[in-house]
Amino acid sequence: MDLISLPIDIDNEKIDSNFRLVAASVMRAKDLAQGAHPVIATTSGKVTTIAIEEITSGALDILTGEAAAEAIEKAKKLAQKRAAEEAVEMEKLPEDLTELEKDLKVYLSEKGERDSKKVIEEIFGDSKNGD
Fold it and tell me: Does residue 20 sit within a domain?
C-alpha cells in the first residue's frame, strides 16, 4: 500500500501552508486521474500519493496570488479557444456526413434492389418450376 509518512517535509519558501499543499495536491491528482503523466519517477500507484510526491520534491511550481490568477485566466482562454475550434470542426462534419449518407443510401438501395429481385425470383421462380 502506498503511504506517505507524516509529517511531510515541505519547502516553506514554495509552499507556505498545509492547506496550500493539500489544495495543490488535489488539483494535481485530478490532472493525473484524467491522464496526465507524472513528472517524476515514482513507484507509487495512487494519483494522490504521486501528486504529493511531485509537489514536495519541487518538481512542480506552485503559483499563488497574481501569478495563479493569470494562469487560471490563461487556461480559461485556452479552453475557450479549443472549444471554438472544435465547434468549427463540428460544423464541417455534417457536410462530410451528408456525402457519406448519400453514398450509403445509394449502396443500400442498389443492394436492396438486388436482394428484392432474388426474393421475387425465389418466390415466383419456384412456383414456375413447380408448374
Answer: yes
Tell me the C-alpha distance between 44 and 50, whole Å: 6
Provide the 10 A C-beta neighbour count for residue 20: 15
Domain that residue 56 falls in = 1-62
Report pLDDT digits (tens) over 57-84. 888 888 888 988 899 899 999 999 999 9
Name the pTM for this structure: 0.55
Cβ atoms of 20 and 62 within 8 Å: the answer is yes
Burial class (CB in 10 A: 0-12, 13-18, 19+), 36: middle
Q: How far apart are CA 4 and CA 44, in angstroms?
A: 10
Cα separation, 4 vs 52, whole angstroms: 9
How many angstroms separate the CA atoms of 9 and 64, rounded? 20
**Would residue 129 count as lying in a domain?**
no
CA 97 to chain centre: 23
54 lies in some domain = yes
Count of domains for the chain: 1
